Amino acid sequence: MGKCFSKSRKEPIDKISKQQPPTSDTLIDKMTHRGSTVPIIYDNIQKYYDLQVSIGSGRFGNVKKALSKDKKVEQEFAIKSIPKSKVIGDLEVLLRELAYLMIVDHPNIIRLYEVYEDSKYIHLVLELCTGGELFTQLLEKGKYAESEAARIIYSILHALSHLHSLGIVHRDIKPENILFSTPDSDAEIKLIDFGLSAKYNKEKTLMHTSVGTVYYIAPEVLKNNYKESCDVWSLGVIMYMLLTGNLPFQGVSDNEIISNILSCSYPNEGNPEWDSLSEDARDLIAKLLNPNFEERISACDALDHPWLIKRNQKDVKMIESKVFDRLQKQTSTNQLVRESTKFMVKYVKEKKIRKLNHVYRGLDKDHSGFISVAELKEGLEKAGIFKDHSEVENIIRNLAYSEEERLDYTDFISATLDKKDLYNKDILWIVFKQLDVDNSGDISLDNLKEVCSRRGKKVSKNEFKEILKQYGLEEKEGINYEDFCRIFEGSSDVDKLSHRISEE
């Protein structure tokens, strides 16, 4: 690898202003999280999870592998525990990270399942990634073949394009913040750590706070005048590293590294590692490392670069008629079923979703992380499924929570996944407990109202009564776990239920 990896990793530069301590002992009780299905629970997390070995650490706290203490749940999690004493002055940073994790929804961004708060800690229950960091794998491999590197760059560009479409800039893209979900060769790539992220106005506002990690920081960030394209520069540094085995901007001191970044001086023509790369690879790196951030290629446009298209064509899948049939059926289900399936899809094993992930990316032509009416209609027509614009629009309007009438990732996967892969006892129990907000043993009207309100939806008393009636529970005021299982299993499964509701 050379001397570029001989020194220790650089820590992020962070000049975020401090914030006064909150007046309440509860730090996140006023945080808005509309658009999210992530529960915030004010209780001792050790009642619910067995925290095991440490698997990482950050500037605020440690990350541990964890198992649910509920014997019905076999899934493993990663729990990031943040001492309140460490964030009193940096509360803004923590709340920002939480807020972004609660609204992003993409297969290449780490999932947040729950948030716990007690008197001393805030705990984030996260997706456990067992494949390790890209940094570690890069040290072991030395460098990647172009086909291998293309899969990684393609995935992170998709994540960045989604973030940028939401007006979020990550600001600390580096190999340590890119994980592999499993040790498998085809594991999903996951972007993590939103502690330095920020919201920005895509039309008007440039950012001015210098943050990031020195090897990967963009020249305009060093000049305190930048926008979301700083993430693209950082990914260009990573692409160079993956393909050559060296950092593009090196030096014996931070000042020398910064000087090379500002001059955009990196080994290219005449360098054996650079000359061995394909012309397309060299072209994309040059576009990602364009020192003029106003002219630098965007994450969205980079996804359509020939170097990536040639190497990722096999990942683009066409929507099948059976997938569309499931999408259509889901529009006939009630709020309880829709909310439940959105929770459930978070816990389904990655391998069962992989093919649908490729369909989702294939439909998402503008790489925003959302599927519009026009995109779904175009995808259906390519697959030989011809539907009126109004019919496609109605499907999306019924399934989506956004007023912009577009499907997000969870909307799409929860509606199209084969229900036999979705409903099992473990997942049903997890979801039931998350819907039973007050832990009463029943899903009540108030519970469903609270969960739906997070996504901007309302449920009336009459609607809830109708849901109970559909399942023969009209004599009850809520739905217990046994009733909940019967809704999704056997003679009361969703496909039959959908048919019954559509007839009514």
TrEMBL record:
Compositional bias of kind Basic and acidic residues: 8-17
Keyword field: ATP-binding, Calcium, Kinase, Metal-binding, Nucleotide-binding, Repeat, Serine/threonine-protein kinase, Transferase
Residues that, per the record, bind ATP: 80
Chain intervals for the UniProt region annotation (Disordered): 1-29
Recorded GO MF terms: ATP binding; calcium ion binding; protein serine/threonine kinase activity
Catalytic class of the enzyme: transferase
Pfam families: EF-hand_7, Pkinase
Chain coiled-coil ranges: none
InterPro entries linked: CDPK_Ser/Thr_kinases, EF-hand-dom_pair, EF_Hand_1_Ca_BS, EF_hand_dom, Kinase-like_dom_sf, Prot_kinase_dom, Protein_kinase_ATP_BS, Ser/Thr_kinase_AS
Residue intervals of the EF-hand domain: 351-386, 423-458
Domain of life (superkingdom): Eukaryota
Domain Protein kinase: 49-308
Catalytic activity, reaction form: L-threonyl-[protein] + ATP = O-phospho-L-threonyl-[protein] + ADP + H(+); L-seryl-[protein] + ATP = O-phospho-L-seryl-[protein] + ADP + H(+)
EC number: 2.7.11.1
Cofactors that this protein relies on: Mg(2+)
Subunit structure: Monomer.
Membership in a protein family: Belongs to the protein kinase superfamily. Ser/Thr protein kinase family. CDPK subfamily.
PANTHER family found in the cross-reference section: SERINE/THREONINE-PROTEIN KINASE
Protein name (record): non-specific serine/threonine protein kinase
